[in-house]
Specification:
alpha/beta, Rossmann fold, seven-stranded parallel beta sheet, 7 strands, globular
Length: 193
């Protein structure tokens, strides 16, 4: 069974106070996210990094302030979270080539990464049996990724010291529901084995 690391939405607009949709305290997880991504690269583990790639008038902006508009500085990931060999898979159904990529940037325009129609084929191509999930926002995009991966029949662990939430109570409810559904919680240190 192959392991795949899922780095969810660690983009400048979410991680830092100057960002358009800052998650309080998110800058504190950048070191853990970087360490997890680097560990994966050093051990031949693929990293799927979900990234919001919105248009200027994206429908999601009816629910959330504008953020992560494609091509803007806020849409970028911190340099320390990027791996040398990477490729981007847009959110339109298409074939993709990931042969040499260590990091796959999976674009999305929704809080649910499974709205990218290429994700199921990507998971199959990577032979993902176990997924390690971290990033922001815990009770929104991380939740959708983790629960979607669980529903697909994979083993899933959420790295609790490499996530940040907007609502503590909703985060705790997600952790409860996630573990009740068979998911596991762990720390970054526990992933380095």
């Amino acid at each position: 069974m192959k392991t795949v690391f899922f780095d969810v939405d660690t983009q400048l607009d979410f991680l830092y106070p100057a960002g358009a949709l800052y998650v309080p305290g998110a800058e504190s997880i950048v070191a853990e996210v970087s360490a997890l991504n680097q560990y994966a690269a050093a051990h031949g583990i693929a990293v799927v990094s979900t990234v919001d790639a919105h248009t200027e008038n994206d429908p999601e902006f009816r629910a959330w302030p504008p953020h992560c508009v494609a091509g803007t500085a806020g849409q970028q990931k911190p340099a320390t979270t990027l791996l040398e060999k990477r490729t981007t898979i847009p959110s339109t159904r298409q074939g993709f080539e990931i042969r040499d990529a260590r990091q796959i940037l999976l674009e999305k325009q929704s809080v649910d990464c499974f709205t990218n129609p290429n994700l199921p084929a990507l998971l199959d191509h990577l032979e993902a049996g176990r997924c390690v999930v971290y990033g922001v926002v815990t009770e929104i995009c991380v939740k959708n990724a983790a629960m979607g991966l669980l529903k697909s029949g994979r083993q899933v662990t959420v790295v609790t010291d490499a996530v940040r939430s907007l609502d503590h109570a909703k985060c705790e409810q997600f952790f409860h529901d996630f573990t009740a559904a068979g998911g596991k919680l762990g720390t970054a240190k526990e992933m380095f084995v």
